[in-house]
Amino acid sequence: MSTITIKNVTKAFGDVVVLKEFNEVFQDKEFITLLGPSGCGKTTMLRMIAGFEKPTAGEISIDGKVVSSEKTFVPPEKRDIGMVFQSYAVWPHMTVFDNVAYPLKIKKMDKAAIKQKVDWILEAVHLSQYANRIPSQLSGGQQQRVALGRALVAEPKLLLLDEPLSNLDAKLRESMRFEIKEIQKNFGITVVYVTHDQTEAMAMSDRVIVINRGIIQQIGTPVEIYRHPSNQFVADFVGKINFVKGEVKDGRIELTGLGQSIAYDGPRTGKVVVAIRPENVRLSLEKGELTGKITSMFYLGDVNDCRVDVGGAQIRVIADSHSYDELYGNEKVFLNIREFLVYEDDGSDDHTKIVT
User: Fold this and answer.
1) Residue 117 to residue 136: CA distance in whole angstroms
2) Are 133 and 96 in contact (CB under 8 A)?
3) What confidence tens digit (pLDDT) does each residue in 189-217 have?
4) CB–CB of 253/291 below 8 Å?
5) How far apart are CA 348 and CA 314, in angstroms?
6) Half-sphere exposure of residue 81: CA atoms within 13 angstroms, side-chain side
7) Rounded to whole angstroms, how far apart are CA atoms 272 and 276?
């Protein structure tokens, strides 16, 4: 079992509060991602779980045992955790085998047991054939797997990952996401993962915790976070989105300054902000709820990324890649919106503001 209970945890450095009243329970074998922009407090939370930082207030328990509180502090080496950092932190003078074996040698295990365990881990992280190489002879992805193997070899109850893929190229990042998730499933281990990359969070997590400036904005599955963001910050941070102001009148939302409107049968009244995902807009040359003119198109292979001028506002539309050959710049088009979100308009244009 490796359940983590976090109660009212606050962390401040002097007068600066970097994390405020964090409350949550991470269940056994769950893959939890702390997601947010740089400086939001996600790495600080991870370091407090690991024992590298002490909470200013609140309590952290692992499997019912308090490891950090006002009166109790268990050091990192006694928390039975594995941790992988952004920088790999592998020993450059040691072979892959010796890097992975290091935690077991520190525990003074006998050589036969060490070899059996390390061979097993190297197989799990697909590095068996590189056992005798040194890190300089490995790619970035292979070095990251060495760090992962070293963190897993002592069979910790909990694995903490601090932006481990951010130094890799895009294609390697994508393949490593699936490898880490597969390893987590095979080991049946609880994972807490820190990233600012929403694609990583969506692809790997059982649940995502979105943080902004030290305050939890939303907790939910990737589907919940993406389809039902609790506020404009979450909607803006997770995925691509258009924001258009409007006002609800007689079953429609009149889009401010655009001279156009869309049907609406929801509960909100008065001034609102309409949030539209680009992939939820279909372009048509024949008919639609809104009209506009294509100002630019970007062929990205799998999609056609368009900008459409609608009454003076730029609406981003993610269209089928084949539409790149069928549409033209400055062409009049119609927009059919399949799905949108509506938020209360507080008069601000800042979609990144703190929501408490």
Assistant:
1) 24
2) yes
3) 999 999 999 999 999 999 999 999 999 99
4) no
5) 19
6) 26
7) 13
